[in-house]
Design brief:
199 residues, mainly alpha, two-stranded antiparallel ribbon, 68% helix, Arp2/3 complex 21 kDa subunit ARPC3, single chain
Amino acid sequence: MHISEGVLKPEILIAGAIVSLVVSIYALKKLKNEEIPLVAVFSALFFLASFIHVPIGPTSVHLILNGIIGAILGTRAFIAILIALLLQGLLFGYGGVSTLGINTLNLALPSLLGFAIISLHVDNAILKKIQYFLIGFLPISLSALFLSTTLALNGESFMVAAEIAFMAHVPIMFLEGFITMFALLFLEKVYPKILKQIK
């Protein structure tokens, strides 16, 4: 889901960089010293989850887990994802520095949906499983939509790539939904404190 350098129009890159910068500065201002290790752990989780790419046509798919990252970190997810994307771009050439802003925006902004969903009070066990599934399913769906929209805005010649990029991520949406559901159910049993909201 990383957009490579040299693909997008400058105005798209600039817009993405500005929005990501504003939200990241806001998140940094709210970040407390005791939250830094948790942000680092989830930055590493994102780094590893999105490291293995499966090529499909002009695009590739991989796990992102931005829903669970957003659910636990809130706006700090921007910091975690930004750092992981920067390291991937510098060390392995995934994405790049010029696309860092738009890639962060496409992946981190939908993660806030995970935070919104986990904030809903649910008592029923079945509904809680559905809630946890949606924390994984909806953010990656939104990220895929953002990716496709970004490519489509880049010009008519990118429309086919935009459609393929979205459709290629449909299986990942369900996979992330189930992974997130089981992960959050596990954390609820062994470490419920982590599921309390970061204000």
